[in-house]
């Protein structure tokens, strides 16, 4: 039995990773800012982090926030992991962090490099956006009478449970460095995803494609955040919508 620490273990992805590893009989410690017994803010570290890592062989680092702080959190986690003699640190990143000059992506890329240079055994998996994230974004956009989406931007959403399954497999294997990306089964236009969401939720909104500007938008429009050659995910966006909202749910 392996002792594994999952950071961000109460989040959308981390919770599923922890459940999968526990189902396989491993001791899993869930680290989050507010959940005892391992309630630790990685941005500040502290004694609680050392206690959480004591005796841990593998860390699955899922904790992340677009609001900032990821780099400091990684510094604290990596330093504590070295002190604890952790054998393997597995980090989940995003497809396109090296191609799309979006601030959050740049942060994820910086953390990747910190992991690679940490001196620990490491694995990095990049995945495309989760179905859940796409729906959260569309829910916000649909509050307006017109659902405006960025013109010409594709997307390739993936089922979060499939990413969790892959992370659990990697956590139980030897450090593998950068492993092949995990992307959803279809590259779709964002307006087609918006229309699918409206159908599933029974809402009526005009979908308007709005051109944007800047380097990040050009990179998104060019599909820098997609991986058509790694379309290995199984669940489609419509299948996710049906599970979540049912037929014509509101």
Automatic annotation (TrEMBL):
Coiled coil: none annotated. Residues 8-132 form the NAD(P)-binding domain. Pfam families: NAD_binding_10 (PF13460). InterPro entries: Ergot_Alk_Oxidoreductase, NAD(P)-bd_dom, NAD(P)-bd_dom_sf. This is SDR family oxidoreductase. It comes from Streptomyces cinerochromogenes. The lineage of its organism: Bacteria, Bacillati, Actinomycetota, Actinomycetes, Kitasatosporales.
